[in-house]
Structure formats: structure tokens, C-alpha cells
Predict the structure.
Amino acid sequence: MFFVFVVLAVVSVPVGPLARVLSAFTSSPFPASSLFFFVISLIIGSQCGHCKKLAPDYEKLATDLKKAGSPAVIAKIDATEHSGPSNTYGVRGYPTLIFFKCAL
């Protein structure tokens, strides 16, 4: 039997620091119509087998949330190319999901 363990951290941060982190990973602006929004960030290692297995489901989540008009922002960060977020949030293994609640 094969299990994938994912670390999920909940972090509440002001928009400024998070905007700097995500600016390299998203081209769409943050929703301006709500007082807060959510960011679900997947931090991966490029050669991680578990990450590759999770990728199609994560992309489907992004597509479904966009179609539903959700204010959630979905981000995927390759920690082998961008180590800053991994260091900042203490990522110890891949894949790691981090849920941010951001206030405007």
C-alpha cells in the first residue's frame, strides 16, 4: 500500500509580503472585490515523484476554482528554482501545501 503525506500549514499574512512571493508565479492580479482572499500554494521539488503524481489533481483544482469564480489564487512553486518561499515557511519535504488567508 502506498501513501502520500502532505504537510498543510495555515498562515495568515498581509498581502504585501505574499504579493512579493507570488509575483513571480502568477500573472493575474489579486481579486480586488473582496476584503480577503485565499492562496493555496503547492511547493514542489522538480524531480519529486509524489509532486508529479499530485500535479494533475492540483491543475484540475485550479481550473475548477477559476470556472466557479472563486477568489482563491492557486500557485505552484518549484523549490529547486525558487528556494525563497521554502526557506521562509520552513518547508522540509515535498510536496507541501500552504494555505494563506490574505486581508486586503
User: Anything to note?
Assistant: The chain has a mean pLDDT of 74. Residues 49-67 form the longest helix (19 residues). The chain is about 30% helix and 30% strand.
